Amino acid sequence: MTDTRHSRLSAAGLLRRQFFAGPVASIMLSLLVLAGALLATGVPRAVAAMHTAALEDSLEQFPGREIDLVTSSRNLPELGAASGDTTLEPEIEAVWGAQEQRLLDIRAGMPELLTHVTGEPLTALVAGPTNAGSEGSTTYQLFTAYDPRIREHIELTGGEWPAPLTGPVPGGAPLEIVLADEVAEQMGWETGVDRSIPIGTDPQDVRLVGTFAAIDPHDGFWTHVPSVALEPAVAYTPEGNIEVTGLGFADPVSWAALEESKLPTAMDAWYPVIPERIRAADSAELVTQLGEFTSQVFVLGSGSWEYWFATVGEVAFTSGLTDALGDAAVAASASDAVLATIASGPIGVMVAVLVLGARVVFERRRTGLELAAARGASPGQLRGILALEGLAIGLPAAIVGGLLGTVLVPADAGAGGWTIAALFALTPMVLLIAAEPGLSPLRRARADLGRPSTGRFRWIAEALVTVLAVTAVVLLYRRGLATSTATTGVDPLLAAVPLLLSLLACLVVLRVYPIPLAALVRRTSRRAGLVPFLGSARALRDPSAGIVPVLAVVVGVSVTVFSSVLLGTVQAGVDRAADAQVGADASVAGTPFTLEQLDEFAAVPGVAAIAPVYSAKPTKVTADGRARTSTLIVVDAEQMRRVQQGRAAPTQLPEGLGETDTEDVPVLLSKPVADFVADADSADLDGEDFDVLGVVDGRTAYSPRSNWVLMDVANAKPFTATLVPRTVLVRFEPGTSAADADEITAALAEIAGENAVVVTPEDLLAELRERPTTQGLVISLVVAIVLASLLTALAIVLTLVVGRPARDRLLPLLSTLGLGRRGERALVVWEIGPVAVIALVAGALLGIALPFVVLAGIDLRAFTDGDAQPAVTLDPWLIIAVLAGSMLVTIAAAVAASRIDGSVNAARAMRKEEEG
Question: Which segments cross the bilayer (predicted)?
Fold first, then answer.
């Protein structure tokens, strides 16, 4: 039979009895550790998920051809069967298999990560355009395309699939094609009807045998063929005739018969990039692999001459994915910088609150441990008892918190979070052991009587904090915006500045608040009331309001105010960015527009001017043999100036942009393209020389990307076969009301058709606010505000709990002298009230000043989607609201703590040991 009495007196039994004798403090400290471990593992995962979502959202803004790994050639593919297995149909494999096999072999040699984020190779060969007849004043231009996997991209809506052409060309058998429904309708081409195109000097019949629709119109495949594949281009020729251009797909086997037709051709072979497979954490490695892959040449054919044409030989692949990942990495680093800046303050407070919590636990154990020391327990045994309780408090809580953070946020952020969680697990043990030297009652001292040595140490510590804070601010201003953190990670200097300034503000508060408090003591000493005099005197003499509660209040208030200023700044920046990106009162885009539609846009009541963007297509810029893909933008400069007149940030178009008698084509370049050609001895645009009239650092209202070349419509003909207006900027009449603007946009949408989109700055503003990076910032700021507020309240409560033993001796004695419960609570409030008020003011001032300091080192363009760093914007109503909330939290915490029951009677208070 077990000896119950013996088990209760064993070491394990005594430890268990000690823990359950006062478990509230230990449970509270355990919850703090759990919260810290949860944040340590969950926050990095949430940030990684945010970065990945933002990266995917960013990549989706790019046309597929701009980020795919693509090689373009005007040479012809080398036809023949594959040497191995491919997934092509047998009859297609006999013609296209050799090239398909080489593309598969190239992909097999890719690094693993690059292989993972790309798809199987694709090829599209486009011939033309060629004249396909006329009707009255309307002429028809036809591209013919040959894609070995065309049936994976289109589905028939009528007719049948084209049969392969196997006879001589030109010859008696027609070339069968299929057209998109809208293209066939606009070209007036009915199924079964033949038209002819020139093959050299002889005609070749082309028969429309079916119509199709794209399986996925948003598939990146459609960016590798002319835009007239799904919707025709309708334009006026210089002679005033209408020209309709479309693209038809023939059976890919037919190209073997047309190989010697001398048609102008362009072939793209590419590996499509799949954005949803790219993780932000893999960006750096992926950029390295892309650099290695695009710097190599690969054999795609023999490169031999066959009669009058050459087959494709060695090729190199290009991709804009490197720049896209670089931009996303810069945006992610800006997010991390903001998050680190916001988090540094609450992290410091959490550590301070853990110190307070450990002190509360230690004070609950003091009497029992002193008794054990008096009965012969060695210091090692006492430390062992405290270490065991510290591990019992911290270890399970850290494991549970870490698991919760891992489960709640399903993302991968490495093992760094668990390392911090392990530190939280050990923190209670370390803090409790550190308190062990104070176990002897012979070493107790009056808390309100300082020692000279303490004063000297305080001056040294304060001087050190001041020097560090000032040095950090000076270095931050000298360095400027942190633009290199995409590769270096979070800047420790930037992250430390808010906490250092908060510590400096705390020291100022602790030095300043005794001055008015001493004056208050002198004033209340001459009055009859006991509570004001005794409360102010105890607040002045007893340093219960030490650095921890002051730090909590200062940081809590400064974080909330700083967050409100940051939100206001980002909001104002988003407003300006939305206005700049739309570039007008409204933008109509999505489908090619006819000249009749342009006239109807201009005739809408309330419209003052319109300006079409005639083309926005991929183009190739070459510098010293190096090539990169860019976006060609074509506008009428004079019309665009009228539309953007009076706007805050229009794209400045040089006066000479429309000149046509120059030797080189005048263009306007974006900064990335200008940097690419800056040091080149020779550069060309699709083989043509150009003259740079200006450089714009950023995007335009004509393209959502920052990589572009802009020219006037007067110089565009050699660079684009058709001038198709796909975007139209609209300026409203001055003084147009919101209701009238809605009517105008509705009329524009009706004219544009159901496939077009009308966007206003207000619409784009709502879209920008929904982006993952912006949403992540808002959520982070809200979490920081809530966490800082809770820690502030908890720090105040714990401060008053630590001071409870002194009140247990004082308040019962005062109650025997007639002090009521209201007076007792007022004395409790006096302990923390004066310093809390001053700390709140200091925190508010610091919160307003922090944005002007730290935003000098943070690039906020990732959140605003703008091209310029937004200026700090103070929203007075928002600041007042968060200040009111901070005051309520502080007051509520003080009131709640003042109601902690100190029900110790006078007799028991007299038996308590006097301090000192």
Answer: 337-362, 382-409, 415-435, 456-477, 497-521, 546-567, 777-802, 827-857, 877-898
